[in-house]
Write a structure and sequence with these properties.
By secondary structure, the protein is mostly beta strands. The chain contains no helices and eleven strands.
Length: about 120
């Protein structure tokens, strides 16, 4: 069973930065695309960034462009999410989803709290 482990969350002030990590326990990691989602209390899960397999192309929804950067280190089987200029509305549990084809693996999430 593939394990997905997020880390790097925490409490930060408005305008601050955090870097989240997503480690995937599969030696064939390069074949996985990876997405970061977030879920705030009472709200639906929201996609915040995608990085494709092989070409490592980053994709973002409009509301995070210019603030969030997704990257991957295939040698470490890890994906990173660099988040800058954080705002209180970014407060959520951030979840990592690694997938290849129709097979998906999820982590437990890491809490990000932005204080005003």
């Amino acid at each position: 069973q593939v394990q997905v482990l997020e880390s790097g969350g925490g409490l930060v002030q408005t305008g601050g930065s955090l870097r989240l990590s997503c480690a995937v326990s599969d030696g064939d990691f390069i074949r996985y695309a990876v997405r970061w989602y977030r879920q705030a209390p009472g709200k639906s899960r929201e996609l915040v960034a995608t990085i494709t397999s092989h070409e490592s192309t980053p994709l973002y929804p409009d509301f995070v462009k210019g603030r969030f950067t997704i990257s991957r280190d295939n040698a470490k089987s890890t994906v990173y999410l660099e988040m800058n200029n954080l705002q209180p509305e970014d407060t959520a549990v951030y979840l990592c989803n690694a997938f290849r084809g129709t097979t998906h693996f999820w982590g437990q999430g890491t809490q990000v709290t932005v204080s005003s």
